[in-house]
Amino acid sequence: MQRFSSIKKAIRYCGLCGAEKSSGGTIQRTPLSKQRNKHLQTTLIEAAKMAPLFSPVLATSNSFAT
User: Fold this and answer.
1) 22 vs 50: CA distance, rounded Å
2) Whole domain around residue 46: which residue ranges?
3) Does residue 1 fall inside a structural domain?
4) Is residue 34 part of a domain?
């Protein structure tokens, strides 16, 4: 049994993505979703902040920098 039919739906449930609206050449991105599992979102964000402290690979990686 699968709870989510796609990765995108799982990410939305966690509240880890904002909406993106595009029109012509303009792209607008909104902050993280307000409709979320707040406890899960907080846990995942804190884990992401702590991960570089325990993994040298994550500490030196800039692949997620914007």
Assistant:
1) 33
2) 7-60
3) no
4) yes
